[in-house]
């Protein structure tokens, strides 16, 4: 039974978005579950730090790190904070992004899958141009997402909506130190180690449709490629995800 939840939100110069993101995370925490929410601020040069709401731990990073290292650092900090209240078999670790808004049932939906035997949950995200006033990504992105949907799940992975039981996370070595694709790499590690990964259709997260992101090779770059060249500019095998 999961008794504690840790959440990581990496952020770099997200003064316009971080408060709304973290407020949504705090609002999604179920009553009776111990929680540690960690914002990892990566070389911010704006007022992001002052926009973090009470109840969130802040880690400040001043040296170049990969997004995988940032997520891993935040989750391990959360685990340390929860160590006296939960062990790795009863703690659930969640990752989202600073340009995203989680729904009120986000954590609950992850924990429901955990109670049914999932070691990890790869959830979906819905692009919301209104979050940034970004242009609609158009039919190409919808086609990419739709091509990976199945009645019982999907074939996508997003760092903005990813959860994993702490003991499985540690056994798999956590998020790898890669510049992008850390979410896909972690899910690959979990599957290779024999852990059960559920690709959930519920518990969705709304995320920005911006085309200039903070991490190279992420969702923003995919959207920029679609806007600039259509799907002809994408490599074979491209899937939606951060």
UniProtKB/TrEMBL annotation:
Keyword tags: Cell membrane, Glycosyltransferase, Membrane, Transferase
InterPro entries found in the cross-reference section: Glyco_trans_2-like (IPR001173)
First-listed, main subcellular location of the protein, grouped into a coarse class: membrane
Cellular compartment(s): Cell membrane
Glycosyltransferase 2-like domain segment(s): 7-126
Pathway given in the UniProt record: Carotenoid biosynthesis; staphyloxanthin biosynthesis; staphyloxanthin from farnesyl diphosphate: step 4/5
PANTHER family: GLYCOSYLTRANSFERASE, GLYCOSYLTRANSFERASE 2-LIKE DOMAIN-CONTAINING PROTEIN
Family: Belongs to the glycosyltransferase 2 family. CrtQ subfamily.
UniProt-recorded name of the protein: 4,4'-diaponeurosporenoate glycosyltransferase
Protein's organism: Pseudonocardia oceani
